[in-house]
Write a structure and sequence with these properties.
mainly alpha, 112 residues, Serine Threonine Protein Phosphatase 5, Tetratricopeptide repeat, 79% helix, single chain
Length: 112
């Protein structure tokens, strides 16, 4: 499947330019099986570092957005996926997760 391969490649590029602490936070943030509190803290630490920009920052929003999707926190997931798309307009994974999340959230609240 192309989306995981592309996401993996961009994640690899992010890791090449990051400091050791930031690399560890990026790795935890991107790990779907990490404990929720640890993963969210790691993602937030990446944002607070201010070291990520552009596509790398879009990937971090995408990873945190996936975290929120997994926990049914739809408004937060939509916000993060939207920010990922704003930073990287050709981001198929963010479009997929963002549109799916918006559909679920709309059904839940009766909005179209």
């Amino acid at each position: 499947m192309r989306i995981p391969v592309l996401t993996g490649f961009i994640f690899f590029l992010m890791m090449q330019t990051a400091s050791a602490d930031l690399r560890e936070d990026l790795e935890i943030c991107a790990t779907m099986n990490e404990r929720s509190d640890v993963r969210l803290t790691a993602c937030n630490s990446v944002f607070e570092s201010g070291q990520q920009t552009g596509e790398a920052l879009a990937e971090t929003y995408f990873f945190r957005g996936q975290f929120f999707v997994k926990r049914n926190r739809w408004p937060r997931a939509i916000a993060d996926m939207s920010e990922a798309i704003r930073l990287k307009s050709n981001f198929p994974g963010a479009y997929f997760f963002g549109s799916s999340t918006f559909e679920v959230d709309s059904e839940r609240y009766g909005q179209a």
